[in-house]
Design brief:
This protein has helices at about 5-20, 20-40, 45-80, 80-115, 120-150, 170-175, 175-205, 210-245, 245-255, 290-295, 315-345, 350-360, 365-380, 400-430; strands at about 155-160, 160-165, 260, 265-270, 275-285, 300, 385, 390. By secondary structure, the protein is mainly alpha-helical. The chain has one domain. The protein has a two-stranded antiparallel sheet with strand order 1-2. Strands 3-6 form a two-stranded antiparallel ribbon. Strand 4 and strand 5 form a beta hairpin. The protein is globular and about 65 Å long.
């Protein structure tokens, strides 16, 4: 089998599995910090119990996410040696900053937060929770800056067949990197908020610790409404940036085959890659795609046929993933708005059907995040560094198909075990009633 395809499958499987844990870490870290701050400000021990309850779930998720992320770094060296050689000078800086600044920040103060109960003051302990949250998000910032350079390389020169920085800050401050960071972390906040709301809804349906979980649901709903709106707004801005920097990805996202001025947006269509067309086009909104992509109703949107075939990304998977992600994002806004309304009217407990819906909705933001990464990475193909290095030119030359297949089998086996352990522990401790406030420190 083709080593390039196998290497891509291996990296996709490990990256998508790792990213199951990342969004919850981003979102739940801030929610736990908010809960503990509420305890420090009010002295209400309900918030202390809430903090410890969701803090335990955060730690389970954080531990599994840390372990699964290490594998990706080894894959760069094993399967993607030519890529690593090409971008080594570029990737080295942001990833070094991520390790020395963000990772040490979050790991150091996570230790304070875990072992500091009754050993440091309440304010210092709450501060450590905020520093962990900021650390996890700063870590995401530098990793996403590195990924954004792959999507839109800037501030570099090519010397001796390698990319080297000539303007580090051009890569850090480029709009693509900023919007990618904001879109990704706000999606993580949605995951965290739906996680808190869903678990709170489960206990409210069972009439367990009603006061505590009503408060937790409220925190999750308010945070989730803010995050859902942010994802929607920033996502629109990010799509406009993609239209400028990656026109092939935009064409695949919307399955646009022919270049059009004042391009419509179809609410329903079926891509037909084999015949380079859309088999079905229904409910077209005139000029809407030009408006969304370029903020100009008469703007020209380039179709896939205007690009060489070997420069086009896979259309169907990019299109379906993008449309499903946008649909889920719209659903999240609707659900959090309705939750906000019920809380304001004090009718949350009366709507059992809505509480059940929120329990079943827990996996949906995870799915949206995974689909977002599929759009970002598949839509960039056939480039591993857009416009500079093709994916087919980036793999290691000494690795055989058999070796990659064996490692894929090993990773799938190991990650299946880790995934089972994570889900088992999260469900086990999410179902438990929070510990009494009189329990002596710790977890």
């Amino acid at each position: 089998m083709d080593t390039v395809l196998l290497a891509r499958w291996q990296f996709a499987l490990t990256a998508l599995f790792h990213f199951i844990f990342v969004p919850l870490t981003l979102g739940l870290s801030f929610l736990v910090a908010i809960m503990e701050t509420a305890y420090v400000r009010t002295g209400n021990e309900t918030y202390l119990r809430m903090t410890k309850f969701f803090g335990k779930l955060f730690l389970i998720n954080f531990a599994l996410g840390l372990v699964t992320g290490i594998t990706l770094e080894f894959e760069f060296g094993m399967n993607w040696a030519r890529y690593s050689k090409f971008v080594g000078d570029i990737f080295g800086s942001p990833l070094a900053i991520e390790a020395t600044l963000a990772f040490f920040l979050e790991s150091t103060f996570l230790g304070v937060w875990i072992f500091g109960w009754k050993k440091v003051s309440k304010k210092v302990h709450a501060l450590s929770a905020w520093l962990v949250a900021f650390g996890t998000n700063i870590s995401a910032l530098w990793i996403l800056i590195a990924n954004a350079w792959m999507q839109h390389p800037v501030g570099y020169v090519i010397r001796n067949g390698r990319a080297e920085f000539v303007n580090f800050w051009a890569a850090v401050l480029q709009p693509y990197a900023i919007l990618k960071f904001l879109h990704t972390v706000s999606a993580g906040y949605v995951v965290g908020s739906f996680f808190v709301m869903g678990i709170s809804a489960y206990h409210l349906l069972k009439n367990q610790e009603v006061d505590l979980f009503k408060k937790a649901f409220k925190i999750g709903a308010y945070f989730g409404l803010f995050a859902s709106l942010a994802v929607f707004i920033v996502g629109d801005m990010h799509a406009a940036e993609v239209a400028k920097t990656q026109p092939t990805k935009l064409a695949a996202m919307e399955s646009i085959w022919n270049t059009k001025k004042g391009a419509p947006m179809y609410l329903f269509l079926i891509p037909d890659e084999a015949h380079e067309r859309n088999a079905v086009e229904l409910f077209g909104i005139p000029k809407m795609l030009s408006i969304l992509a370029y903020h100009n109703p008469n703007a020209t949107v380039r179709g896939l046929k205007s690009f060489p075939k070997n420069d086009r990304p896979p259309v169907t998977i990019t299109f379906v993933s993008f449309r499903t992600m946008v649909g889920l994002g719209t659903l999240f806004v609707i659900l959090t708005l309705f939750a906000f309304y019920l809380i304001k009217k004090d009718k949350l407990l009366d709507k059992k059907w809505f509480l059940k819906l929120m329990v079943y909705a827990i996996p949906l933001p995870y799915l949206a995040c995974e689909l977002g990464w599929i759009v970002a990475e598949v839509g960039r193909q056939p480039w591993i560094v857009y416009g500079l290095l093709r994916t087919s030119q980036a793999t290691s030359t000494a690795v055989t198909s058999a070796q990659i297949i064996m490692t894929i089998i090993g990773f799938v086996f190991l990650y299946s075990i880790l995934g089972f352990i994570d889900i088992y522990l999260l469900i086990k401790y999410a179902r438990k009633v929070p510990e009494p406030a009189t329990k002596e420190g710790g977890y």
